[in-house]
Amino acid sequence: AQEAAIKRAAAMIAHARRPVFYGGGGLINSGADASHAFTSLVQETGAPCTLTLMGLGAYPARDEQFVGMLGMHGT
Question: In what residue span(s) does the Thiamine pyrophosphate enzyme central domain sit (predicted)?
Answer without folding.
Answer: 6-75
